[in-house]
Amino acid sequence: MRRLGPLWRNLFRKKQVDADLDAEVRSYLDLLQDEKAHRGSDAHSARREALLELGGIEQVKESVRDARAGRLLESMAADLRHAWRTFRKIPLTAAVIAGSLGVGIGVNTTVFSWIQAVIFEPLPGVARSGDLQRVEPRADTGSYPGVSWPDYQDLQRSLKSFRDVFAVRMVPFYVGETGRTERITGQMVSGNYFSVLGLSPAQGRLIQPEDGARVGAAPVVVISYEFWQQRFRGSPDVVGHNLRVNDRPLTIIGVAPPRFQGTDLGLNVSLWTPATLAPLLLTGTTELADRSQRGYNVMGWLAPEASRAAAESELDRTIRQLGQLYPETNGRMRGEVMPFWRPPNGPQRMLARSLGLMQGLMFLLLLAVCGNAANLMLARSSRRQREIGIRLAIGAGPGRIIRLVLTENLLLALLGAGLGWLVAIWGTDALRVVPMISTFPIRFQTRVGLSGSVFTMALGLLCGLIFGVSPAVALARLDPQSVLHGLSGAGFRSRLGRALIGTQAALAIVVLISAALFFRSFRETQNADPGFVRDGLLLANYNLTGRGGDGNAARRFAANLLERVRALPGVQGAAIAGSVPLDIHGMPLMSLQVKGHAPAEAAPDRGLMNTVTPGYFATMKIPFRAGRDFTDLNDSDAPAQAIVNEEFVRRFVRSSQAIGRAVTARGRSYLIVGVVRNSVYEAFGEPAIPMLYRSYRDAPRLGGEIHVRARPGSETLLGSDLRRIARELDPTLDLYDIRTMNEHIDRNAFLRSIPARIFAVLGPLLLALAAIGIYAVVASSVAQRTGEIAVRLALGATARHVIGQIVRETLRVVSVGALIGWLASLLVDLHLAGGVIYLPVFVGVPAILFMVAALACWLPAYRAGRTDPMIALRQE
């Protein structure tokens, strides 16, 4: 490095460069002056004329700078031409490096495009959507129940840390004439929804504050751009048309901007209506006045002078005040402010968590690719020593050699980046066009835009520097006399090559173990016991909204439907429930009071709630721990009943007898008649949550989810029978979203499965890259030791001994690097998993890598062991 010191000082010291420039300019002026004097002019006049001719010293400096820049560009162009000729001599090596870099950069850019779509631009079409903040009340159970409409109105008046906040909740709408309806995903929003988001309509106008000022005042709807194109073929006359929604005519007032798809992360919304239309569209709802109905999400942008911490403090203070005013519904609540892209629950939150981890692992993968490329270039450098030695001998400095080699590597890296850009475009397009999960409207607008392209090129340049520095420095430090006399720098290259192999092994172990643990976690989630039997269960949704019926009509419909479904051949059980476990919307959280149990504070206890018909637990195969099932739907004499889970008993009843205890919820008292096993309700891995089941007889609903139990594998055949029975009971009724319970659960885990599937592909790829890197270094080392190996064979060494020594030397280096990576992975896993170690991963991954490495170094060693010593010595 002592040789390189003066070079760097001359390159980066501005004063020295300016002094050299001045000297060059003055020398040029002196030459001109001498020429004038030689022609008989006065010396002073000659200097003056020279300066006037040149326009002053600054212009001369500029001319010299231009000349230097021109020489630099010519030199760079020559370096690029030389690099291209070099690649033509090693097409296979260049192709392997560019291809591996293309894959590594491509997958990094693909993950970056997802991060950009989820974190930086989570709402397509909304400017600065990554800065949007969620306003979330948090219950003492640790869950986030959402915000009621009255609470939103109070928060909007009280929160000064936000410029403004809006409220929104997702609702399934039934669009079309009776008997020809289509289920559409929509949102009910506050009047300031579109104005706070800063959106402009594609046609007509958007919902305005006056549209949501009074209950039922404005029966209007805004449709999405996609819905406008599909349903109305983009007709400009759509504004003013009537659209029948939940059997109510609404006037289309506008079309949303093209890319906008709503404010549920990743969900594609087609309709927006004012929230004040809830009593008109949702028969029997009291959500506009009931603080216990917490279905709304509240969001907004922070005021310019406000921080998130200050906003959260103000929100917490406001929610505590609401808890004091309304203890039965708002007691023991806290407030949290969180970024929009980090929802408090649901599969979107799992995706946001996974992407950060995935991007980190992809960077490690790219480092491993760079190590592989460095190994290949080091192997190539061993055959360039004479070329570089001659360049050094005729006067080229170390800096010139470094620039030449770095130019080659950067050009190769940029070629890989271009290939990676194409891989990223293909990957993002492929993931975008694949249907996410059956009929659920999930859509991520991932794309490789300008920022993605800049990210790709930056990664390419960084990779070129990472894998190009080591061979460039190694060649620049060559002693030309040693090279020209036949002495090589194999010792240095050997040490550097071994260091790169060890580093690559460490990175490979970290990435492979992380990928295996992530994939295992995903598989465990899929195979975890949810507390009920998921196989053989068919689900179907129905809704009686708009048919003019009351609770008695809904109860009669449910009883008749279940009677006919249970009579179908092969049906082992049937029931109806208001909610399905592991649904993306979660389950409602309600306040409750158990007789004889005093809460720790003045506020009531809380638990999740579901409304189910008799036979639900037998259909789900959730076992009873005590008591019995609900009475028949047609029994009008029995008191209102409830069934609770084990966690409910543990928290609110404890050692006392739960059966026969009264519990009050939503202003009505229920008699506990049974206790069932705990099960999963909102997400795998959740803590145990108190659960209260109400009887459908006591709280009939206009809609519900039909659950049908059959022999596993035959449940999918019952879909047509369910549709037929529903039409027989009501010719205008359609069933929606018919799917198996396994398909339903896969919805919850689908977004998490995306990283898991990518990891499953990248694992073998990383093993292949590690094998290529090891093979290249060992092959280069063997080529340099041909004479040594030939002498040893001629003196009596066996081929087996030679092969074994080469393999042992390489595997020793691989083992050291793998051990370092293994220890790092172990420490991280112990920290995250709380001391749990999964031996198949921590033993199996190193074993697989060790076998791959052994094969990669055995192949060149085997060829070396078969060398004819006499031929090899004559060639030497």
List keywords for this structure.
alpha+beta; 876 residues; six-stranded mixed barrel; ten-stranded mixed sheet
Describe what you observe in this structure.
This protein has 876 residues and is an alpha+beta fold. The chain contains 26 helices and 21 strands. The longest helix has 44 residues, at 741-784. The radius of gyration is 36 Å and the shape is elongated. Helix 5 runs antiparallel to helix 12 (347-381), helix 5 packs across helix 14 and helix 24 runs antiparallel to helix 25 (839-865).
Which helices and strands appear, and what pairs or packs with what?
Layout: H1 4-12, H2 14-38, H3 43-54, H4 57-89, H5 91-120, E1 133-139, H6 149-158, E2 162-175, E3 182-189, H7 193-197, E4 203-204, E5 220-223, H8 225-232, E6 242-245, E7 248-255, E8 271-274, H9 278-281, E9 297-302, H10 308-325, H11 327-330, E10 333-339, H12 347-381, H13 385-393, H14 398-433, H15 450-476, H16 480-484, H17 490-527, E11 537-543, H18 551-566, E12 571-577, E13 589-594, E14 605-612, H19 616-620, E15 624-627, E16 641-645, H20 646-653, E17 662-665, E18 668-676, E19 691-695, E20 703-710, H21 719-729, E21 736-740, H22 741-784, H23 786-794, H24 799-833, H25 839-865, H26 869-875
Parallel strand pairs: 3-8, 5-7, 14-19, 16-18
Antiparallel strand pairs: 1-9, 1-10, 2-3, 2-9, 4-7, 5-8, 6-7, 11-20, 11-21, 12-20, 13-14, 13-17, 15-18, 16-19, 17-18
Helix pairs in contact: 2-3, 2-4, 4-14, 5-12, 5-14, 5-15, 12-15, 12-17, 12-22, 14-15, 17-22, 17-24, 17-25, 18-21, 22-25, 23-26, 24-25
